[in-house]
Amino acid sequence: MTIAPVLVLSSVLTTAAVERAALTQAFTRLNSASAAGSAGAAAMSGRAVDAYGAHGGFAIAAAAAVAMAVRPRSGRARCGPAASASGLAPRPPKG
Predict the structure, then answer these.
(1) Rounded distance between C-alpha atoms, residue 61 and residue 42, angstroms
(2) Which of 38, 46, 60, 78 has the CA that lies 20 to 30 A from 86?
(3) In angstroms, rounded to a whole number, what is the distance separating the alpha carbons of residues 16 and 71?
(4) Burial of 18 per CB tally in 10 Å (0-12, 13-18, 19+)
(5) Are 17 and 91 within 8 A, CB to CB?
(6) What sign does the CA torsion over 15, 16, 18, 20 have?
(7) Are 58 and 68 in contact (CB under 8 A)?
(8) Distance between CA atoms of 12 and 9, rounded to whole angstroms?
(9) 3-class DSSP string for the chain
(10) Are 50 and 42 in contact (CB under 8 A)?
(11) What does pTM read for this prediction?
(12) Could you report the per-residue pLDDT of 27-54, keeping only the tens digit for each?
């Protein structure tokens, strides 16, 4: 229930925030980060299940949910003049 919306949202945000000339590279980095995150999560969950049973696996999932809930708040610092100068800010709408 969460993977498809996250993938769609990340694609839409990437399309909106990245210059057209760098879009392929941005999607490549996005997909690489997603694959690395999935592999890391599977490794951590596997170790937790081996060490603590099913409760350890659920604890990893709960910790990841909390981390993802806190993450957007820490990203807000990238907005402003420095972000637009570095290309991190979303580009203005055309029109």
Answers:
(1) 10
(2) 38
(3) 20
(4) buried
(5) yes
(6) positive
(7) no
(8) 5
(9) CCHHHHHHHHHHHHHHHCCHHHHHHHHHHHHHHHHHHHHHHHHHHHHHHHHHCHHHHHHHHHHHHHHHHHHHHHHHHHCCHHHHHHCCCCCCCCC
(10) no
(11) 0.58
(12) 999 889 888 988 988 898 899 999 999 9
Contact between 45 and 59 (Cβ < 8 Å): no
Amino acid at 83: A
Query: For residues 59 and 48, is the Cβ–Cβ distance under 8 A?
Result: yes
Kindly give, in sequence order, each residue whose CB lies less than 8 Å from that of residue 89, ignoring residues fewer than 6 positions away: 17, 78, 79, 80, 83
Cβ atoms within 10 Å, residue 34:
14
pLDDT, tens only, 42-88: 898 899 999 999 998 888 888 888 887 887 766 554 544 455 555 55
